[in-house]
Write a structure and sequence with these properties.
single chain; alpha/beta; D-Maltodextrin-Binding Protein, domain 2; 12 helices
Protein backbone atom coordinates (compact mmCIF):
# COMPACT_ATOMS: atom_id res chain seq x y z
CA UNK A 1 0.00 0.00 0.00
CA UNK A 2 1.37 3.45 -0.90
CA UNK A 3 2.38 5.80 1.92
CA UNK A 4 1.78 9.06 0.05
CA UNK A 5 -1.57 9.77 1.65
CA UNK A 6 -1.51 13.40 2.76
CA UNK A 7 -2.81 15.14 5.85
CA UNK A 8 -5.49 16.69 3.67
CA UNK A 9 -6.90 13.27 2.92
CA UNK A 10 -6.86 12.31 6.61
CA UNK A 11 -8.87 15.43 7.42
CA UNK A 12 -11.27 14.59 4.60
CA UNK A 13 -11.66 11.11 6.00
CA UNK A 14 -12.44 12.48 9.45
CA UNK A 15 -14.99 14.83 7.93
CA UNK A 16 -16.62 11.89 6.18
CA UNK A 17 -17.20 10.06 9.46
CA UNK A 18 -18.12 13.16 11.47
CA UNK A 19 -21.74 12.79 10.47
CA UNK A 20 -22.06 9.65 12.55
CA UNK A 21 -23.06 11.36 15.83
CA UNK A 22 -25.93 13.06 14.01
CA UNK A 23 -27.26 9.64 13.07
CA UNK A 24 -27.21 8.24 16.60
CA UNK A 25 -30.98 8.47 16.83
CA UNK A 26 -31.34 6.24 13.76
CA UNK A 27 -32.62 6.70 10.24
CA UNK A 28 -35.73 8.70 9.51
CA UNK A 29 -38.88 6.72 8.95
CA UNK A 30 -41.80 8.19 7.04
CA UNK A 31 -45.37 7.62 6.01
CA UNK A 32 -48.52 7.11 8.02
CA UNK A 33 -49.07 4.19 10.35
CA UNK A 34 -51.25 2.36 7.81
CA UNK A 35 -49.00 3.05 4.80
CA UNK A 36 -47.65 -0.23 3.52
CA UNK A 37 -49.93 -2.26 5.80
CA UNK A 38 -50.31 -4.89 3.06
CA UNK A 39 -46.53 -5.17 2.59
CA UNK A 40 -45.07 -7.26 1.07
CA UNK A 41 -47.12 -8.15 -1.98
CA UNK A 42 -44.17 -9.31 -4.08
CA UNK A 43 -40.56 -10.47 -3.76
CA UNK A 44 -38.03 -8.33 -1.92
CA UNK A 45 -34.74 -7.59 -3.67
CA UNK A 46 -31.68 -8.07 -1.45
CA UNK A 47 -28.48 -6.57 -2.90
CA UNK A 48 -25.24 -8.15 -1.73
CA UNK A 49 -22.54 -5.66 -2.76
CA UNK A 50 -19.82 -8.30 -2.78
CA UNK A 51 -18.78 -11.19 -4.99
CA UNK A 52 -20.58 -14.53 -4.74
CA UNK A 53 -18.94 -17.04 -2.42
CA UNK A 54 -17.45 -14.54 0.02
CA UNK A 55 -18.40 -14.13 3.67
CA UNK A 56 -20.88 -11.33 2.97
CA UNK A 57 -22.60 -13.39 0.30
CA UNK A 58 -22.82 -16.45 2.53
CA UNK A 59 -24.43 -14.72 5.50
CA UNK A 60 -26.82 -12.81 3.24
CA UNK A 61 -28.13 -15.96 1.61
CA UNK A 62 -28.50 -17.74 4.96
CA UNK A 63 -30.46 -14.98 6.68
CA UNK A 64 -32.56 -14.28 3.55
CA UNK A 65 -33.64 -17.91 3.37
CA UNK A 66 -34.58 -17.89 7.05
CA UNK A 67 -36.53 -14.62 6.70
CA UNK A 68 -38.71 -15.67 3.75
CA UNK A 69 -41.27 -17.57 5.81
CA UNK A 70 -41.94 -14.85 8.43
CA UNK A 71 -41.90 -12.19 5.72
CA UNK A 72 -44.36 -14.10 3.55
CA UNK A 73 -42.50 -13.48 0.29
CA UNK A 74 -39.34 -14.65 -1.42
CA UNK A 75 -36.13 -12.65 -1.02
CA UNK A 76 -34.07 -12.45 -4.21
CA UNK A 77 -30.29 -12.10 -3.86
CA UNK A 78 -28.34 -10.04 -6.40
CA UNK A 79 -24.54 -9.71 -6.18
CA UNK A 80 -23.25 -6.27 -7.19
CA UNK A 81 -19.63 -6.01 -5.97
CA UNK A 82 -17.52 -2.90 -5.96
CA UNK A 83 -15.88 -0.32 -3.69
CA UNK A 84 -16.25 -2.34 -0.47
CA UNK A 85 -20.02 -2.38 -0.75
CA UNK A 86 -20.51 1.24 -1.82
CA UNK A 87 -21.64 0.49 -5.38
CA UNK A 88 -24.56 -1.76 -4.51
CA UNK A 89 -25.35 0.13 -1.33
CA UNK A 90 -25.70 3.47 -3.10
CA UNK A 91 -28.01 1.95 -5.68
CA UNK A 92 -30.34 0.56 -3.03
CA UNK A 93 -30.37 3.73 -0.91
CA UNK A 94 -31.31 5.75 -4.00
CA UNK A 95 -34.37 3.58 -4.59
CA UNK A 96 -37.90 4.14 -3.35
CA UNK A 97 -38.31 3.58 0.41
CA UNK A 98 -41.01 0.96 -0.04
CA UNK A 99 -39.27 -2.04 1.52
CA UNK A 100 -38.68 -3.88 -1.74
CA UNK A 101 -34.98 -3.02 -1.93
CA UNK A 102 -32.58 -3.78 0.91
CA UNK A 103 -28.83 -4.33 1.01
CA UNK A 104 -26.07 -5.82 3.09
CA UNK A 105 -23.68 -3.29 4.60
CA UNK A 106 -20.40 -3.67 6.46
CA UNK A 107 -18.67 -1.78 9.25
CA UNK A 108 -15.49 -1.24 7.23
CA UNK A 109 -17.35 0.86 4.65
CA UNK A 110 -18.07 3.48 7.32
CA UNK A 111 -15.08 3.05 9.66
CA UNK A 112 -12.18 2.27 7.30
CA UNK A 113 -12.99 3.23 3.71
CA UNK A 114 -13.11 6.99 4.50
CA UNK A 115 -9.47 6.73 5.62
CA UNK A 116 -8.49 5.43 2.22
CA UNK A 117 -10.81 6.92 -0.36
CA UNK A 118 -12.12 10.43 -0.83
CA UNK A 119 -15.68 10.04 -2.07
CA UNK A 120 -17.98 13.09 -1.98
CA UNK A 121 -20.90 10.76 -2.72
CA UNK A 122 -20.08 8.31 0.08
CA UNK A 123 -22.99 6.70 1.90
CA UNK A 124 -23.75 8.69 5.03
CA UNK A 125 -25.15 6.81 8.06
CA UNK A 126 -27.97 9.33 8.51
CA UNK A 127 -29.14 8.56 4.98
CA UNK A 128 -29.91 4.90 5.66
CA UNK A 129 -32.14 2.84 7.91
CA UNK A 130 -30.59 -0.11 9.71
CA UNK A 131 -33.07 -2.95 9.35
CA UNK A 132 -31.13 -5.42 11.48
CA UNK A 133 -27.62 -6.24 12.64
CA UNK A 134 -26.27 -9.72 11.93
CA UNK A 135 -22.75 -10.92 12.69
CA UNK A 136 -19.25 -10.13 13.85
CA UNK A 137 -16.24 -11.79 12.20
CA UNK A 138 -12.55 -11.88 13.04
CA UNK A 139 -9.76 -11.62 10.50
CA UNK A 140 -7.00 -14.22 10.29
CA UNK A 141 -3.67 -13.75 8.54
CA UNK A 142 -2.95 -16.72 6.27
CA UNK A 143 -0.37 -17.81 3.71
CA UNK A 144 -0.38 -20.62 1.19
CA UNK A 145 0.46 -23.94 2.87
CA UNK A 146 3.44 -24.28 0.51
CA UNK A 147 4.77 -20.85 1.46
CA UNK A 148 8.20 -20.74 3.08
CA UNK A 149 6.78 -18.44 5.78
CA UNK A 150 5.98 -20.54 8.84
CA UNK A 151 5.35 -17.71 11.31
CA UNK A 152 4.48 -14.03 11.46
CA UNK A 153 8.14 -13.35 12.18
CA UNK A 154 9.13 -15.12 8.95
CA UNK A 155 6.60 -13.18 6.91
CA UNK A 156 7.45 -9.70 8.17
CA UNK A 157 11.16 -10.34 7.59
CA UNK A 158 10.58 -11.13 3.91
CA UNK A 159 12.35 -8.79 1.44
CA UNK A 160 8.92 -7.80 0.12
CA UNK A 161 5.35 -9.00 0.47
CA UNK A 162 2.30 -8.85 -1.80
CA UNK A 163 -0.88 -9.23 0.18
CA UNK A 164 -4.43 -9.77 -1.06
CA UNK A 165 -7.44 -7.92 0.28
CA UNK A 166 -11.17 -8.11 -0.33
CA UNK A 167 -11.02 -4.55 -1.64
CA UNK A 168 -9.86 -1.03 -0.89
CA UNK A 169 -10.92 0.25 2.51
CA UNK A 170 -11.62 -3.18 4.00
CA UNK A 171 -10.65 -4.62 7.36
CA UNK A 172 -8.39 -7.12 5.63
CA UNK A 173 -6.50 -4.29 3.99
CA UNK A 174 -6.20 -2.22 7.17
CA UNK A 175 -5.12 -5.11 9.40
CA UNK A 176 -2.32 -6.13 7.05
CA UNK A 177 -1.24 -2.57 6.33
CA UNK A 178 -0.92 -1.86 10.06
CA UNK A 179 0.97 -5.10 10.66
CA UNK A 180 3.49 -4.63 7.86
CA UNK A 181 3.98 -0.93 8.57
CA UNK A 182 4.55 -1.67 12.24
CA UNK A 183 7.11 -4.33 11.31
CA UNK A 184 8.83 -2.13 8.74
CA UNK A 185 8.11 -4.63 5.96
CA UNK A 186 8.07 -3.54 2.33
CA UNK A 187 4.54 -4.58 1.40
CA UNK A 188 2.13 -3.99 -1.47
CA UNK A 189 -1.61 -4.55 -1.31
CA UNK A 190 -3.46 -6.28 -4.15
CA UNK A 191 -7.20 -5.56 -3.87
CA UNK A 192 -9.93 -7.83 -5.22
CA UNK A 193 -13.71 -7.40 -5.42
CA UNK A 194 -14.51 -9.61 -2.47
CA UNK A 195 -13.06 -12.23 -0.17
CA UNK A 196 -13.62 -15.22 -2.43
CA UNK A 197 -11.42 -13.98 -5.32
CA UNK A 198 -8.79 -12.85 -2.81
CA UNK A 199 -8.64 -16.35 -1.33
CA UNK A 200 -8.47 -17.83 -4.83
CA UNK A 201 -5.47 -15.61 -5.59
CA UNK A 202 -3.65 -16.85 -2.48
CA UNK A 203 -4.44 -20.47 -3.28
CA UNK A 204 -3.00 -19.83 -6.75
CA UNK A 205 0.15 -18.27 -5.24
CA UNK A 206 -0.49 -14.95 -6.98
CA UNK A 207 0.06 -13.20 -3.64
CA UNK A 208 2.00 -13.98 -0.47
CA UNK A 209 -0.57 -13.42 2.25
CA UNK A 210 -4.18 -12.55 3.03
CA UNK A 211 -6.14 -11.29 6.01
CA UNK A 212 -9.56 -12.85 5.56
CA UNK A 213 -12.60 -13.82 7.58
CA UNK A 214 -12.81 -17.24 9.17
CA UNK A 215 -15.80 -18.06 6.97
CA UNK A 216 -13.67 -17.53 3.87
CA UNK A 217 -10.51 -19.24 5.08
CA UNK A 218 -11.27 -21.97 7.63
CA UNK A 219 -12.20 -24.74 5.21
CA UNK A 220 -8.94 -24.18 3.35
CA UNK A 221 -7.06 -24.12 6.65
CA UNK A 222 -8.68 -27.39 7.73
CA UNK A 223 -7.91 -28.89 4.32
CA UNK A 224 -4.25 -28.01 4.72
CA UNK A 225 -4.20 -25.55 1.82
CA UNK A 226 -3.70 -22.38 3.88
CA UNK A 227 -1.52 -21.81 6.96
CA UNK A 228 -2.79 -19.40 9.67
CA UNK A 229 -0.14 -17.17 11.22
CA UNK A 230 -2.06 -14.74 13.43
CA UNK A 231 -5.55 -13.49 14.22
CA UNK A 232 -6.43 -9.80 14.51
CA UNK A 233 -8.68 -10.13 17.56
CA UNK A 234 -8.39 -9.20 21.24
CA UNK A 235 -8.15 -12.87 22.24
CA UNK A 236 -7.38 -16.13 20.50
CA UNK A 237 -10.28 -17.57 18.53
CA UNK A 238 -12.11 -20.61 19.87
CA UNK A 239 -11.98 -21.92 16.30
CA UNK A 240 -8.17 -21.51 16.04
CA UNK A 241 -6.95 -21.74 19.63
CA UNK A 242 -3.39 -22.56 18.58
CA UNK A 243 -3.05 -19.40 16.47
CA UNK A 244 -1.63 -16.37 18.33
CA UNK A 245 -3.14 -12.91 18.15
CA UNK A 246 -1.20 -10.15 16.43
CA UNK A 247 -0.95 -8.48 19.85
CA UNK A 248 0.83 -11.55 21.22
CA UNK A 249 3.39 -11.08 18.47
CA UNK A 250 3.97 -7.48 19.46
CA UNK A 251 1.61 -5.71 17.04
CA UNK A 252 -1.32 -3.87 18.61
CA UNK A 253 -3.67 -4.51 15.70
CA UNK A 254 -7.28 -5.43 16.44
CA UNK A 255 -9.66 -5.29 13.48
CA UNK A 256 -12.96 -7.07 12.98
CA UNK A 257 -15.92 -6.90 10.61
CA UNK A 258 -19.60 -6.35 11.42
CA UNK A 259 -22.40 -7.01 8.94
CA UNK A 260 -25.92 -5.57 8.90
CA UNK A 261 -28.84 -4.88 6.58
CA UNK A 262 -29.87 -1.41 5.40
CA UNK A 263 -32.75 0.20 3.53
CA UNK A 264 -33.52 3.70 2.25
CA UNK A 265 -34.70 6.19 4.86
CA UNK A 266 -38.39 7.00 4.86
CA UNK A 267 -39.79 3.48 5.11
CA UNK A 268 -43.43 3.49 6.21
CA UNK A 269 -43.70 2.38 9.83
CA UNK A 270 -45.63 -0.76 8.91
CA UNK A 271 -43.00 -1.77 6.35
CA UNK A 272 -40.09 -1.11 8.68
CA UNK A 273 -41.75 -3.09 11.45
CA UNK A 274 -42.52 -6.04 9.16
CA UNK A 275 -38.91 -6.20 7.95
CA UNK A 276 -37.49 -5.95 11.45
CA UNK A 277 -39.80 -8.67 12.74
CA UNK A 278 -39.06 -10.99 9.81
CA UNK A 279 -35.32 -10.79 10.34
CA UNK A 280 -35.73 -11.10 14.11
CA UNK A 281 -37.55 -14.38 13.49
CA UNK A 282 -34.90 -15.41 10.96
CA UNK A 283 -32.20 -15.06 13.60
CA UNK A 284 -34.04 -17.61 15.74
CA UNK A 285 -34.18 -20.17 12.93
CA UNK A 286 -32.32 -23.39 13.76
CA UNK A 287 -30.87 -23.66 10.25
CA UNK A 288 -29.52 -20.13 10.57
CA UNK A 289 -27.95 -20.99 13.93
CA UNK A 290 -26.29 -24.03 12.37
CA UNK A 291 -25.02 -21.86 9.52
CA UNK A 292 -23.35 -19.45 11.95
CA UNK A 293 -21.56 -22.28 13.76
CA UNK A 294 -20.53 -23.96 10.52
CA UNK A 295 -19.13 -20.68 9.17
CA UNK A 296 -17.37 -19.49 12.32
CA UNK A 297 -19.47 -16.35 12.74
CA UNK A 298 -20.51 -14.70 15.99
CA UNK A 299 -23.85 -13.01 16.48
CA UNK A 300 -23.95 -9.21 16.52
CA UNK A 301 -27.49 -8.32 17.46
CA UNK A 302 -27.80 -4.81 18.83
CA UNK A 303 -30.13 -1.85 18.51
CA UNK A 304 -29.99 0.73 15.75
CA UNK A 305 -28.52 3.27 18.18
CA UNK A 306 -25.86 0.85 19.45
CA UNK A 307 -24.89 -0.07 15.90
CA UNK A 308 -24.43 3.55 14.89
CA UNK A 309 -22.38 4.27 18.00
CA UNK A 310 -20.16 1.29 17.24
CA UNK A 311 -19.50 2.63 13.73
CA UNK A 312 -18.58 6.02 15.18
CA UNK A 313 -16.27 4.54 17.83
CA UNK A 314 -14.59 2.23 15.32
CA UNK A 315 -13.90 5.11 12.94
CA UNK A 316 -12.08 6.93 15.74
CA UNK A 317 -10.24 3.76 16.80
CA UNK A 318 -8.95 2.95 13.32
CA UNK A 319 -7.90 6.54 12.70
CA UNK A 320 -5.94 6.41 15.95
CA UNK A 321 -4.29 3.13 14.93
CA UNK A 322 -3.31 4.57 11.55
CA UNK A 323 -1.71 7.57 13.25
CA UNK A 324 0.01 5.39 15.86
CA UNK A 325 1.66 3.26 13.20
CA UNK A 326 2.38 6.22 10.94
CA UNK A 327 0.29 4.62 8.25
CA UNK A 328 -0.77 6.67 5.25
CA UNK A 329 -2.94 5.77 2.29
CA UNK A 330 -3.98 6.97 -1.09
CA UNK A 331 -7.06 6.09 -3.14
Amino acid sequence: MSESYTRRRVLAALAAVSVLPVAACGGVKGGSDDAGSDYPTRAVNFTVPFAAGGSGDLISRAVAKAAEKPLGQSIVIANKPGANGAVGGKEVLASSPDGYNIALAVKSLFAITPLVVEDPTAIQPDKMEIVTTLVQEDYVLVVNAQSPYQTVEDLVKAPSVKYATAGVGTGGQLSQALLFKGAGTKATDVPFDGGAPAVTALLGKQVDALSGSLAETMEHIKAGKLRPLAIFSTERSEFLPEVPTAKEKGYDVVVDQRRFIIAPVGLPEAVSTKLEQAFAEARKDSAYETFLKDNYMERWEVSDEEARQHLKDSAAQFESLAQKFGLTFKS
